[in-house]
Amino acid sequence: MYKTMIKKMPLLSLLVLLVISSSLVHSELLVKKQRFEMDNFVTFGGKTIKKVAVGFESYGQLNDKKDNVILVPHYFSANSHAAGKYHADDAQAGYWDAIIGPDKAIDTNRYFVISIDSLVNLNANDPTTITTGPSSIDPDTGKPYGLSFPVVTIRDFVNVQKAVLESLGIRKLHAVVGASMGSMQAIDWAAAYPDWVPRMISIVGTGQIDAWGSSLLEQWAIPIRLDPKWNNGDYYQSSAPTEGLTTALMFITQAALTPEFFKQMSDSPALAQQAAQKAALADINASPAIVTWLHQLAQKRVALMDANHLLYLVRANQLFIAGQQQDLKSGLQNIKAKTLFLPANNDMLLMPYLAQDAYQILKDQGKNTELLPLVGPLGHLNGVQLISQQADKIKQFLAN
Amino acid sequence: MYKTMIKKMPLLSLLVLLVISSSLVHSELLVKKQRFEMDNFVTFGGKTIKKVAVGFESYGQLNDKKDNVILVPHYFSANSHAAGKYHADDAQAGYWDAIIGPDKAIDTNRYFVISIDSLVNLNANDPTTITTGPSSIDPDTGKPYGLSFPVVTIRDFVNVQKAVLESLGIRKLHAVVGASMGSMQAIDWAAAYPDWVPRMISIVGTGQIDAWGSSLLEQWAIPIRLDPKWNNGDYYQSSAPTEGLTTALMFITQAALTPEFFKQMSDSPALAQQAAQKAALADINASPAIVTWLHQLAQKRVALMDANHLLYLVRANQLFIAGQQQDLKSGLQNIKAKTLFLPANNDMLLMPYLAQDAYQILKDQGKNTELLPLVGPLGHLNGVQLISQQADKIKQFLAN
């Protein structure tokens, strides 16, 4: 079926197919976004945000003892729509629908699964995202915060999640499971609140952002700052820095994929590779086919996104070190959870040495930890699109 | 000695040390830049450039039979200063001084070594670079070409080199040896003019740019186009797009290095990592230490560079396929040279599979070809800074 579809599909076919692949599995979950609000949230950096609102979704039923909770923090460009559909005819289910649902790896017949929109969520203009960040109205001025919004960290995402859980009467998790930036929240949860977290799964994840990662992340911020429309973050009354944001999305997409996948894409007839090369030889302003493809894909996504939010997400990631101590060893010292790391062996964004480092530290500390590789042509995105390959392992890890 | 120097050096210490490491070996070569001019150069794309001027340097003596010539095309951000010094007290020798000189791997007692500034050379404002590109004066208008300069290709670099060699009465090479973009010229030489090239060495090289490489290269072009000062390439009467160009240089530096090297850098006390993280938590406009380091390093380099030239270099690389046929197999079919590939095993820019692919095609075609890895913490830059590790192999390959 895949092959037939690919032939019939226009430009963007392959990645779109990948992005919507979860919907090919008929989702049995119907979900709705809920809203959580709190006053006077104090950030890890010591600043107060007077009003915080975030959205959340849940799948499955909270049991009477409230001890069947699995928290699923989301990745950089996602929101809390981890599984299910809002309406039966939605084109697309949540990003991990392949492993979250009745009888699936994260079994909603058994667990109460909850996912929460992060602070400074990238999809600030998406009506199904509820978040607080630089695009939110500052109650003191009645205008968007812009760059007056305080820097937030992965720990702040964790602390807002904790407030949401506590508002539901939850005092302990069964597990926390996250991919990429979701893995950062997962391991920071285990380090910051060890009594809450008996099980942690890190998928295409890391225990910290190193210098390489920090400057790679900066590559996504710089184009926004270069876009004259960015205007030091003050663009809510004028037009948004769409080209800068589109560029950032292009860079993110490339970093999340692999040379192997790009080769498959560019061999697709839809990309008209030869004609594009001819045009690129004739005109310095023409683009190679793969660049046009990345640009069009990014353009489709940016309308729902906010450029300042991307800058704040970049910063939250740049500051990440699980446990927030001087070094990672100290930060992981308090972890009580048994842990499972599933890095992708060809990940170009959070390279497998990062999960390996965290795993090795935990192992050296005598903790119950495991590491298994994810394979496939998608690199970092193996952790989202091809996660089913470890469904049995995840199910078994959660059951014990 | 290295350790003592590192301690005494300010910020930028480590990479600067690496960049100047060749000068720690006392160079015995004194060289001078020479000038070559030609009229009416017709590009691979079929456009005519009315006046072409390029600079070149040579090391060693051309013998009477003119058959002892080794051509060394340069990499992306370099010029023809491959070895030696212009003045005995120059701080820095040419980039490959470690392997070019009397009794060295490329022995100037034996060979006449020549290197030629490329068209659209990045260092257009460097007085020791002579090049023709968008910053040059168009004889038809008396003004800089800007984007009216035709797109040029690696083949055009090769053809200009061939004209220089022919002007010296040379009709055949002993060898062609290049790193990175220099390797592209080297293998294209072997494919385009097989009777000229009996030996070819490709260092951190490739036989073609694939889709991944093409869109990675585009990441260097986009920030320049986003900089409002770029003004569609028309900035020679106003101020240059320095921030866009600085960004491009930052991206290039990262791509040419490795996570391992970045970790070493950020552990250096000069980077004041902890203080920078604290500032980055307090202020969204502050930068992580590694970003500040990359930015400062790039800023020091851009004064001598031209932003349009970078766009044209990116395009020349995006269009590269050795032999300029439909596919690489056909392109390499005519090669008669024995070939040696030295990829770096941790190269993040031209990953080792690229050299491996070209090597495998040549092997399958029954040709004399070898591949050996370069090691070291510098990734792509192992091919420049740490090339001495294969000096014996290079010497022996050239002697037979």
TrEMBL record, chains A, B:
GO MF entry, a single one: homoserine O-acetyltransferase activity
Subcellular location: Cytoplasm
Location of the AB hydrolase-1 domain: 110-251
A single Gene Ontology CC term: cytoplasm
Gene3D superfamilies on file: 1.10.1740.110, alpha/beta hydrolase
UniProt GO BP: homoserine metabolic process; methionine biosynthetic process
Residue positions of the active site: S180, D347, H380
Main location: cytoplasm
EC number: 2.3.1.-
Class of this enzyme: transferase
InterPro entries the record matches: AB_hydrolase_1 (IPR000073), AB_hydrolase_fold (IPR029058), HAT_MetX-like (IPR008220)
Family as reported in the entry's similarity comment: Belongs to the AB hydrolase superfamily. MetX family.
Protein name in the entry: Probable acyltransferase
Organism classification: Bacteria, Pseudomonadati, Pseudomonadota, Gammaproteobacteria, Alteromonadales
